[in-house]
Specification:
Layout (H helix, E strand, L loop, with lengths): L5 H4 L12 H12 L6 E5 L6 H13 L13 H8 L5 E5 L6 H11 L9 E6 L6 H12 L5 E7 L7 H4 L3 E4 L5 H15 L5 H11 L3 H14 L6 H8 L4 H12 L3 H13 L4 H20 L11 H8 L4 H16 L7 H14 L5 H8 L2 H18 L1 H7 L14 E3 H4 L10 H10 L1 H4 L8 E3 L26 H16 L8 H10 L30 H6 L5 H8 L2 E7 L4 E7 L9 H13 L3 E7 L6 H21 L2 H9 L13
Parallel strand pairs: 1-4, 1-5, 2-3, 3-4, 9-10
Antiparallel strand pairs: 6-7, 8-9
Helix pairs in contact: 3-4, 5-6, 8-9, 9-10, 9-11, 12-13, 13-17, 14-15, 14-16, 16-17, 27-28
């Protein structure tokens, strides 16, 4: 007897033996037990998850000689024939090779005949998304209302390509990918029945290579049995799949923990000697880093039977969570950039060196960047004083002599306030002073000891070394340019103190002149042309104003643009029709039958046929031009309303606020 592969030999024969699709099994079992049978089923999912197997089990449940049941006997003639693939009333059709309308028509012609020796005639169409549109359309009516004795089962790996008209006629079930533990358990059961020795880590590696497909897992197991001469071992499976030994990855992480660049390059050289795939190595490294992150943050997420569990827990304790995240990102990007590298070895080694070179910010650096301005300024002031006091002689001996400048004279006393650039405060308006008192900005830059003077440690001939500006946590829109604000405040004070300028309330008037726009003059459209014949149309429908009429027509696309941008030149009304003459600015507006669509819309409005004659030329009195004028008027009204608002005027005057140009929109 010829050998039968494991995927066919151990194909599930009932719902109870089906692995990994409990949600589908539950729905179908309840439907069969309650006799709530649909006429069309759609099974979707990736390859090897049980679509064809489910269709055969469902066909047996419908045609079993014991009756419609969720537990077919498996020994009657119908069950045995369906399992053997020779049941005459169970038809499996491959849509990839029978995708035309002729093949579908032939199938539908046979569907009208009653089954020969079964309860239902079941049609199973595999890879149904490969059918042509004509084939789909030809089956719609039969799929919606088939004979009572016909059941359709459709299977596909790409449901997005199936028309929605077909999806709406089917009961859809989405089959999931097989989880890793389910594949490993199924392989253990099968190898136990076959009396073949195995190693559990080898089965886990086979399950990972299957990527959620049970059929792929069984095919790989067949290959591993042949490769290892009757037993499934980890070494044999690694050699067969070309998988990377996990010891290489563990060595890489140990070298990263010890900051040993030579060890990293040594691992890369060993992998080059064994001709291992660097792309697969980076993929496995990213997987291992993912497991390390889980071990750090969610320890219960690491499976107890994972072979590398002890090493994962050990390595997770060597790194900070931020480092693991950074290494993972570098590994993923390094894998994508291997094709851009001079060669794979250079790309892989550079990725490892990048992990060695980059480090997340330390806690001290993070605290320094996130410190409030007062604390940061105080720290820098203390450091500056300590540096100046520690080495005054060295600074004086190494610094070249600098001539005294009348503009920048070295102060005799150094204070915290001078270092933090808060020695002088500008004169503020009462509203701004209240705002700064509320937010605490004026005192934020001082340390508690800001008022204490510190004697200058350096001689007067030594130039003052400015302290570095501390990083500020204040948003940029809240920071004030003290010099500019002081200048503006002084100018405002001068205006208030000099009433002889001859203007009443000068500051407010100056602000109003800068804010209020000049008087807006809306553009004027030319008067409507004198069109003869328009008053002969029923006045209840049209008053002769073409822009208003064209803007209200129920049109879309090019026909709507033709109506909005055309100008009426003439109108002739006869008992048989209405003849309109329009001027159009662009010839492209007359494409796609837009003039006919416009005439149809007007004919429905006037209850008379409308004929349109067009000419190309400049237009003036159009609905589009009227809309432009209306938008300009509304925009100007909105700007005037905002800029003349008392609250806005107070913000502009007291807080130095500005109105962003173009930010005002009419409601």
């Amino acid at each position: 007897m010829s050998y039968q592969v494991l995927a066919r030999k151990y194909r599930p024969k009932s719902f109870q033996t089906l692995v990994g699709q409990e949600h589908v099994v539950r729905a179908l079992t309840h439907a069969l037990e309650q006799q709530r049978l649909h006429h069309a089923y759609l099974f979707t999912g990736t390859r090897g998850v049980g679509k064809t197997t489910l269709s055969r089990i469902l066909a047996k449940s419908l045609n079993c000689e014991t009756g419609i049941t969720s537990t077919p006997c498996g020994i009657c003639d119908a069950c045995v024939a369906i399992d053997a693939g020779r049941f005459v009333d169970y038809i499996e059709m491959d849509a990839a090779s029978n995708r035309g309308v002729d093949e579908m028509a032939q199938l539908l012609e046979q569907a009208v005949y009653a089954p020969s020796n079964a309860r239902f005639k079941v049609y199973m169409i595999d890879e149904v998304h490969m059918l042509t549109n004509h084939a789909f359309n030809s089956m719609l009516k039969t799929l919606e209302e088939p004979p009572a004795y016909v059941k359709f089962i459709l299977a596909t790996t790409d449901p997005q390509k199936i028309p929605v008209t077909v999806l709406s006629r089917c009961l859809q079930f989405n089959l999931k990918q097989m989880p890793l533990p389910a594949i490993v358990g199924h392989l253990e059961d099968i190898l136990g029945q076959e009396q073949i020795s195995f190693e559990v880590p080898a089965l886990r590696l086979l399950a990972q290579g299957a990527q959620g497909s049970m059929r792929d897992a069984l095919s790989l197991t067949d290959q591993a049995i042949s490769y290892a001469a009757g037993s499934v071992t980890l070494d044999a499976v690694q050699g067969m799949l070309g998988a990377l030994d996990q010891t290489f990855l563990i060595k890489i992480l140990d070298a990263l923990a010890e900051q040993d660049g030579a060890a990293l390059l040594a691992v890369a050289d060993q992998m080059a000697t064994r001709s291992l795939s660097y792309k697969a190595a980076l993929q496995d490294l990213a997987t291992l880093l993912h497991q390390l992150s889980i071990a750090q943050l969610v320890p219960a997420g690491i499976a107890a039977d994972l072979p590398e569990r002890a090493e994962i827990i050990r390595l997770a304790a060597l790194f900070e969570p931020e480092q693991i995240q950074l290494f993972y990102q570098i590994a993923v990007h390094g894998r994508n950039e291997l094709g851009l590298a001079p060669d794979e070895y250079a790309g892989f080694s550079m990725t490892l060196l990048r992990m060695l070179a980059f480090r997340p910010l330390s806690n001290d650096s993070t605290a320094m960047l996130s410190a409030p301005p007062a604390k940061a300024a105080g720290n820098i002031s203390s450091q500056a004083r300590a540096a100046v006091a520690a080495k005054p002689t060295a600074v004086a001996s190494t610094a070249p002599p600098v001539a005294a400048s009348p503009v920048r004279s070295a102060p005799a006393m150094v204070t915290d306030a001078a270092v933090s650039n808060n020695a002088t405060a500008p004169k503020l308006s009462p509203a701004m002073a209240a705002l700064e008192a509320l937010t605490g900005r004026r005192g934020a830059g001082r340390s508690p000891a800001a008022s204490a003077a510190v004697p200058a440690a350096a001689p007067a001939s030594v130039p003052a070394v400015p302290a570095p500006t501390p990083p500020s946590s204040t948003p940029p829109w809240e920071e004030l340019d003290q010099a500019e604000f002081s200048s503006a405040a002084e100018k405002k004070t001068e205006l208030i103190a000099q009433p002889e300028i001859g203007r009443e309330n000068p500051p407010e008037k100056a602000i109003a002149e800068n804010v209020m726009p000049p008087a807006f003059v809306p553009p004027e459209l030319p008067p409507p042309p004198l069109v003869e014949g328009v008053m002969q149309v029923d006045g209840n429908l049209w008053d002769g104003h073409w822009p208003d009429l064209s803007a209200k027509l129920p049109l879309r696309g090019v026909a709507q643009q033709l109506a909005l941008q055309s100008e009426l030149l003439g109108c002739e009304v006869t008992p048989q029709a209405i003849n309109l003459t329009l001027r159009v600015p662009l010839e492209t507006l007359l494409t796609a039958g837009s003039a006919d669509k416009l005439a149809t819309a007007l004919g429905e409005l006037f209850t008379l046929p409308v004929k349109i004659t067009t000419e190309i030329g400049a237009v003036q009195r159009t609905a589009h031009a009227a809309a432009v004028v209306d938008r300009a008027v509304r925009q100007d009204a909105a700007e005037v309303a905002i800029k003349s608002d008392p609250l806005v005027q107070n913000l502009l005057r007291d807080f130095g606020a500005t109105i962003v140009a173009g930010s005002i929109r009419p409601i």
